[in-house]
Amino acid sequence: MRIAITGHRDVHGATMVDVDTALRMLLAEFEDGESTVGITCLDDGVDQTFARAVLDLGGAIEVIVPAADYRKSLDEGNILEYDRLLALASGVRELDHRESTPEARMAAALAMLETADHVLAVWDGGPAQVAGGTADVVEAAKDRGLPVTVVWPDSGRRG
Known about the structure:
It is a single chain. Helix 2 links the parallel strand 2 and strand 3. Helix 1 crosses helix 2 and helix 5 packs parallel to helix 6. This protein has six helices and six strands; from the N terminus they run E-H-E-H-E-H-H-E-H-E-H-E. By secondary structure, it is α/β, with parallel strands linked by helices. It has one domain: Rossmann fold.
């Protein structure tokens, strides 16, 4: 199964621990005898947690890089993990955008949806804070008829 991830970049601490646990449980449920492929941009926060979970469970990751300067847009503390996970990817697709703008990120999300069978959304249910945010990706997935599973802990917090 090919599973795309979308989620908030500002999930940390106990909420991220709960999200990690939930993602691992869901990924284990999706196992149907074939290897899982996680599709991700390896963005800060949720994307990297998802990628680690997919790899830990024996799956593969494919990465969509939104823009030439995407790596520079990540939090400094996540760059080494981004590089490590990118090196482990079974496939990498780099989009033609030069700058990592909200439009480039949305284009990457749409590229993920093109080949996904299912979408996991780590989403608090609120509106997108910027164009191409989690809510926009969820809406685009639903418009395409893709099943979306929302993950958000009862006590989840952002920030």
